Amino acid sequence: KTAMTTASPPPPPPPVPPCTYPPRPCDADGGHADAPWCDEDRSDSDRARAFVRAVHDDELHLLFGNVWVGLPRLGLPQTFWWNEALHGVASVAPGQDGVVFGGDLPYATSFPMPLVTTAAFDDELVASVGAAVGTEARAFANCNQGGLTYWAPVINAGVDARWGRVQESSGEDPYVTARYAKSFVDAFQYTSPTPPIPYPRRAAVSACCKHFLAYNVEANRLAFDASVPAQDMADTYEVAFKTCTSKASCTMCSYNAVNGIPMCANKEYLTGVLRNRFRFDGYITSDCGAVNAVIDQHKYTNTTAATINAVLEAGMTQECGSYLYYNLAAALKAGTVTRTAVVPALENQIKVMMQLGYFDSRSSQRYDYGPSSVNTAAHAALAVRAAERGVVLLKNSNATLPLRTERVRGAAVAVVGPNANATKTLLGSYYGRPETITSVYDAARAAFKDVASAVRYATGSLITARIDGGVEHACKVAADAALVVAVVGLDETVESEGRDRTSLALPAPQVQLLEGVRKCTPRHAALVMVVVAGGTVDLHAYLEDDADAGAHRIDAIVWAGYGGQAGGTALVNTLVGSSTPSGRLPLTMYTDAYALARPITLLTQRATGEMPARTHRFLRGAERTKYVVLPFGFGLTYTKWRCTLAIATPGAVAAATLELDAVCTNVGAHASTYTML
User: Fold this and answer.
1) Which residues on neighbouring strands pair with residue 250, listed in sequence order?
2) Where does 55-113 have alpha helices with state H?
3) Known catalytic residue: 97?
4) What span, in angstroms and rounded, lies between the C-alpha atoms of 525 and 22?
């Protein structure tokens, strides 16, 4: 059985009450304040053991699942384990996850998708975003509109640009991903970019490292068996998890199997690697429905009891889903699952809740955030800065950008393309409810309202479909413009959870749109191409300076990713020069031919037979020349930098750790930041 589906749509939710601190098991007026698990002088482990001892066998199943349904006999209220905060507090499954928008918390800040923030290559920026999201997450929990356990970040390396969830990742390099995880998790859990060391006794919220392990394919993901050599596992797939699990209090086991064993039943990895080698001490939850997949899709077990025993023995301690909720009680009663097998999992999850202050008195709580801590002006400004820092300038012929005001004064500006006026698309995936979302068109109107004679807009095409007369309409608004901004790219219909890309090319309708716009854009005008996409797109045809006969060349190209609520503002700020681009590609940009050269299901990193290697770490020589359009780390800027690099300690070249002195000086005309790779 599963509670993940319903026979009829749920009724509309009731109105959200004003912010009210949620009930907790050890509230003074709850009748259990004197229970041993409420004694704050005892260790968290002792208190967790005391609580689990008090739970009857026929109640154990109530403590498994993404929702604790509640255990009134022991003062335990309904509690949601599933909450989302990938790049802002979010709700993706109302009624099953815990976040509720409304009442005193109608909105939450939506920062750029992680891939965009990663493009800044700035650990301090990542930490600032993490602290802001953690603060808002705890505020939702304090107002009983969210839980304390949030299932973020995604730290699977985006080793294939076709992966549907690459936008949620930190790009293709596992060491960059590890740095992202360290910076985000610490700041998120303790709501500070620089948490004090040693850490406070209580964290504000719990972060979760997902999806463990080798989860990089969406197609048939419930049954996919990832065949991964030990070397690739060690130097690619495990790297970020080793770092993340040293900080976070949760790890999520993934849908897929690894070398024949489903991850949520994989004792070698959940216990042998995660617990014993990485010394992870938090709770391990399944991905949603992954326990069902152990028996139904992977066919790894053939009975209910065998499935429950397999995941508990492997080391899983919590479940997103309801397999254990519906089946554990009967298995315990039949004797096919023992209480001894269940208790360690429950003690583990209760201890984590102890570490979050869930079982502490109200007077002991240290994170007193509320509505005034959410959707603040400071967080909105940070959302703009993060989106600006993630913009990557890919082409800038004849210094077209930053755009000089004189070029458009008294003339028209045209903003065309399927993502030109997109708002929801800018949020990417796992998004919440921001108060405002600024599209590129809206930001252009604001930026040029006192300069240009008009700012016009045309869709031109949909993401993957033509619009009758669309190209003609785009040409009409571009025909007399001094600036044409073509905003193309992808959206969630092309790349998302459950949906991998089959091509790296720009969708054909947009290619046709660009061909038309290039032919009708005036020769004196600036033609700028903006790519709004989670992953990379084959742009080789537009990077050349030589235009086709009768067509305007693309003067500048900018990759903007999914920039969150301020994505449009950040992009236009970059075009006009109020922000100088300093981002670098966190993914290699390939030709579309690369997508045909190796299957996405082949997770090895090195070259295999006639198939090329993956990522900047292993793609070399003739293969690199053949398939790479722009390399990992590529990014132009408006200014010029002069850098010197020297060994800090002469004669120490053979040392295991080498210290370098780097001095970079901005010798150009634009203020900027700089990342040395």
Assistant:
1) 208, 283
2) none
3) no
4) 59
3-state secondary structure 315-328: CCCECCCCHHHHHH
Provide the 8-state DSSP code for 289: T
Give the helix/strand (H/E) hosting 641: strand 641-647
Helical pair 377-389 and 567-576, crossing angle rounded to 10 deg = 60
C-alpha distances in angstroms, 306 versus 62, 259, 506?
Answer: 20, 20, 47
d(CA 242, CA 280): 9
Q: Which residue has 């020349």 as its token pair?
A: 625
Cα distance between residue 319 and residue 289, in whole Å: 8
Strand partners, 318: 285
Residue 387: which H helix or E strand, with range? helix 377-389
Which DSSP string do the residues of 277-288 spell out, in sequence order?
A: IS---SEEEE-T
Question: Which listed residue (97, 122, 232, 287) is catalytic?
Answer: 287
Strand 283-286 to 250-253 pairing? parallel
Question: Of all residues in the chain, what percent are helix, strand and coil, respectively (each to 5)?
Answer: 35, 15, 50
CA 360 vs CA 45, 83, 147, 207, 220: distances in Å: 14, 21, 15, 20, 43
Question: In 3D, which of 457, 39, 463, 66 has the Cα closest to residue 287?
Answer: 66
Q: Which residues pair with 416 in a beta bridge?
A: 458, 486
- Cβ 172 vs Cβ 159: under 8 Å: yes
Tell me the pLDDT tens digit for each residue of 294-335. 999 999 999 999 999 999 999 999 999 999 999 999 999 999
Give the C-alpha separation, 484 to 474, whole Å: 10
pLDDT digits (tens, 9 = 90+) for 234-268: 999 999 999 999 999 999 999 999 999 999 999 99
Q: Give CA–CA dist 389/399, Å, rounded.
A: 20
Query: Residue 345, SS3?
Result: helix
620 CB neighbour count, 10 Å cutoff: 12
Q: Quick one: tokens of 143?
A: 């107002």
By three-state DSSP, how is residue 569 classified?
helix
Question: Which residue from 513, 442, 341, 431 is spatially nearest to 107, judged by alpha carbons?
Answer: 431
Give the CA distances from residue 130 to residues 117, 140, 318, 465, in Å, rounded to whole numbers and listed in that order: 11, 15, 24, 37
pLDDT digits (tens, 9 = 90+) for 594-646: 998 999 999 999 998 889 999 999 999 999 999 999 999 999 999 999 999 88
For residues 344 and 359, give the distance between their C-alpha atoms in angstroms, rounded to a whole number. Answer: 18
Q: Which of 594, 676, 675, 581 is nearest to 629 (CA)?
A: 594
Helices 323-334 and 339-355 sit at what angle, rounded to 10 degrees? 140
Tokens of 617: 């770490």
What stretches of 95-236 show up as alpha helix (H) in DSSP?
114-118, 123-142, 174-190, 230-232
Maximum pairwise Cα distance, the chain: 84
438: tokens are: 């600024």
> Residues 471-476: what's their mean pLDDT?
98
- 389 exposed, middle or buried (CB, 10 Å; 0-12, 13-18, 19+)? buried
How many angstroms separate the CA atoms of 133 and 121, rounded? 19
